[in-house]
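Handout, section 4.2: multi-component inputs.
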Amino acid sequence: METQLSNGPTCNNTAHGSNTINSCSSPIDSGNTEDSKTNLIVNYLPQSMTQEELKSLFGSIGEIESCKLVRDKITGMLVFELVIPRYEKYLNTLKNLKGITLKLKLQYYLLVSYARPSSASIRDANLYVSGLPKTMTQKELEQLFSQYGRIITSRILVDQVTGMSRGVGFIRFDKRIEAEEAIKGLNGQKPPAATEPITVKFANNPSQKTNQAILSQLYHSPNRRYPAPLAQQAQRFRLDNLLNMAYGVKRFPPMTIDGMTSLAGINIPGHAGTGWCIFVYNLAPDADESILWQMFGPFGAVTNVKVIRDFNTNKCKGFGFVTMTNYDEAAMAIASLNGYRLGDRVLQVSFKTNKTHKA
DNA sequence: TCATATT
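Output:
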């Protein structure tokens, strides 16, 4: 009876992995009706991803009935996105989604789960737990709380430097009422073998940020597309690092050249402030975003792709752009894909420059 | 003493 899907190669409860975003719950059975299995929720999408891009990604699985991207009303932060492939069956969908995750090849994994039917009963079911024994694993935390209901996600926060548990964590239950029962049953109680009682309370709601925090984010925003992208980026980098540690993916510095240059306003060819912009020339008229994801994804973190189309015909004008997070991965993609034969066309791939490219 | 999973 679980909605949770595994979003990583292993169910990781080791010391360095205790900060995984996931619970270790059974990955497949949603416990919902067959109908609800066409309804997916996708978490940890890149903040830069657009609805069209997501649609393009998942469109290769099956026909998408609807695709909705939800942002925090106040901060503009991408919260999650919903995709509904109409014809796909349960296992087949899962199999293909794994493939999609690999193709996308982000620094972190997308979390793709069956969406629970939306209702008031699943809201505000998130608990904050403190005073946990430092030795307690995520699995043990779940075992402690699972007697009160179905756990959607769990997490133990760890020290960024040592990787050791900070003794605090989160438990998200399926239902609000389950969370309430867990508070009643566990707040102030000592877990088995623990010397100190734990505190269990409802977690702060992210939409209830202080005005000061929001103003601070707005102030630091260099970008007009959504408020607070700089703060978001910093946040994302931290998340990336957490997840990279958790999954053993290559780790990159908290402040990359990407962040440095955008802060300093330095202009480097191909570098647009949110990543390394790559120019792809000689695409076919019917080229779409998914081909760019598929070509560049294997080289590393791709945060954005765009095919430039003619306004009237909606056909590709022969070129597009790809944004990649890390310079070395972008350089490798360019070195590998420049001159690549796509169908009957030979592609030209380079860092984007300011000059106009002509055929 | 707080990260993100609800439309």
